User: Fold this.
Amino acid sequence: MKIFKKMDFVIIVVLITFSFIPNLIYSNVVSKNNKNLYATIKVNGKVHTTIDLPLAFEKRLSISTDHGNNTIVINSNEVKILDADCKDELCIKQGSISKVGKTLICLPNELIIEIKGDEYDSSDDLILSH
Assistant:
C-alpha cells in the first residue's frame, strides 16, 4: 500500500515553490526602493559603526570585543567578514551581503552587520517578530 501517490509529490513541490515567491518579490521591491544604503555594525547589541554605501575604495575594520576579534571588509556596496577568531567561523562562510535587510552574524563574538536603507521601515520587523 502506497502512502503517497505521484500527484501528491507534484502538489507538495508546487506548494513549496510558491511559498518562496513572496520572499523574492519582497526582497526585490525593498532593494529597489532604497537608494541610500548603509551598513550598521552592532557589538553586544549596541551600534558600533555605521558606514554609508557604496564606498569608492575598500575599507577594512577590525572589531575587538570581550569575546574575540573580527575583520570586516567593505568593497563598493558589499560587506563581508574576512577573518574571525571564533571556533566555527560560520560568519566567514556566510559570504558577502549587499541588499537591504541582509545580515551577517558572528554569535560567539556578539557581532551583527546589517544592510539598511533610508526608506526601509523597520517597524514591520516588530510585527514579524511577535
User: Anything to note?
Assistant: The chain is about 30% helix and 35% strand. The mean pLDDT is 84. The domain at 36-117 is CATH 2.60.320.10 (mini-chromosome maintenance (MCM) complex, domain 2). The first strand starts at residue 37 and ends at 43.
